Structures are given as structure tokens and as C-alpha cells.
Amino acid sequence: MSKLTKNQKLVAGKIEAGKAYTLKEAATLVKEITTTKFDASLDIDVRLGVDPRKANQMVRGVVSLPNGTGKVVRVLCLCTPDQETAAKEAGADYVGLDEYIEKIKGGWTDVDVIITMPAIMGKIGALGRVLGPRGLMPNPKSGTVTMDVAKAVREVKQGKIDFKVDKTGIVHTSIGKVSFTPEQIIGNAKEFIATINKLKPAAAKGTYIKSVYLSSTMSKGIKIDPKSFDEN
Question: CB neighbours of 17 closer than 8 A, spacing ≥ 6?
């Protein structure tokens, strides 16, 4: 068994095994236990009391984080020529149609989000094999297929993210960076959990939010008391 480094020993002593921290405590502690030299991402994992195998218990949605994600999101807008100027002014990194469709067919996927229009989905459907496995396929439910592409681009650039429960019943997403203040972390986490609560399926029985963990890249997860999300 390898020996713990000096930083790992310091971190190990800060987290009490089995303890459920308040959101406020966790937002401060996650910054203290992160020892990476880069600005690590902050991840939240929420275990839900649902059965994702049943269509009436699927949890999927979008949320606009009040303090953004802290990430530079590269956006491709596939739109008609009359919408190109608006998409560019809204902040899209790449704007066009046929030339980008051909690039994607050739294997190019150097973007984080693709936004398009309903009338164009017929052309994009053929790209499913390339975009699907990478989670890049536009979807009306996530707001990436819309008539108002400029608005969608602005929202994504400002911190709008989409999420869905995985086959094990866990929703996992990033809600910021370690460089965020505890207040910014709390604000984003509360908004995310509030959205999760609004999406509770009617068919879900028993405890809906079973556990919540906050962590940063390469750090240990900090267990959070779900009740603390209601505290001021």
C-alpha cells in the first residue's frame, strides 16, 4: 500500500468519517481539501429514490446556475443564414450549417454544446452516431433545439446546464470551480437541488433525495445533509 503524501494526510484529517455536513460547511471544506495546482471543477452527486428504468421515473432537466459554471463553454450554432448574425452576437463560437455538418461527419466534435433549430433537425439526425455517444446531440428537452437560437446561446454561455439521472439513480454534474467563494458554491448548489426537487416524478415513492455529495477534481466526496439546503 502506497504511503499518503503530506497533502493527503492533511486532507484526511479534515473530513470526519460518516458525518453529514451542512451545505455551508461543505462549501468551505471542499476548498480546504483541494490540493490541485489548477482550478478544479466542483461536482455534485445526488442519489435519488427513483427507478430510471421506468419512463415515469426518469429525471431530466436544465438549470441556469446563478453564478455560472466557471468553465469556458464552446458553442456551435447550426442555423439558417438569417439567424447567423444573432447567434454570433450572442456569443456562439462557431456558426453555420452545411460546412459544420460535413466537419462533424468527418469526426470533428471540438465543442461542448450544439444548438440548432427544429427545421434543421432532419439534417442533424444523420449525425447521431457521432454526437450521441459524446452527449452532443441537440434535444428540445434541454433547450438546445429552439427557434430562438440567440437566447439559447446566451443562456449556455451564462451557466445553463442540462442533466439527467443515470441508470444507477444518480445525477452527477459540475456546479462551479474551487476558485468560487463559498457563497457562490452555495448559491449554485441550492439552485441545482431546487430544480431537482421540482422534477420529482409523481411515481417516485419514499425518500426522493437519498444522499448528496460535493467534491472537487481528485478530492474526497463530502457528504451533505439534504435538509441543510433549506437553510438560509
Answer: none
Nearest to 230 by CA among 66, 59, 24, 31: 24
pLDDT in tens, 74-83: 999 999 999 9
Q: How long is the chain?
A: 232
C-beta atoms surrounding 38 within 10 Å: 10
Question: Residue 29 has which C-alpha cell?
Answer: 471544506
**Cα separation, 75 vs 77, whole angstroms:** 6
231 by Cβ neighbours in 10 Å (0-12 / 13-18 / 19+) ranks as exposed
- Whether the pLDDT of residue 3 is over 80: the answer is no
Phi, psi of 230 (to 5 degrees): -90, -5
Residue with cell 460535493: 214
pLDDT of 15 reads 84
Considering only CA atoms, which of 214, 169, 187, 156 is closest in space to residue 58?
169
Are 221 and 204 contacting, i.e. CB atoms less than 8 angstroms apart?
no
First and final CA of the chain: distance in angstroms?
A: 44
In sequence order, what are the residues at sequence separation of 6 or more whose Cβ sits closer than 8 angstroms to the Cβ of residue 103?
none
Query: Which of 2-16, 22-36, 46-60, 97-111 is predicted least confidently?
Result: 2-16
Residue 12 in this model has a pLDDT that exceeds 70: no
pLDDT at position 91 over 70: yes
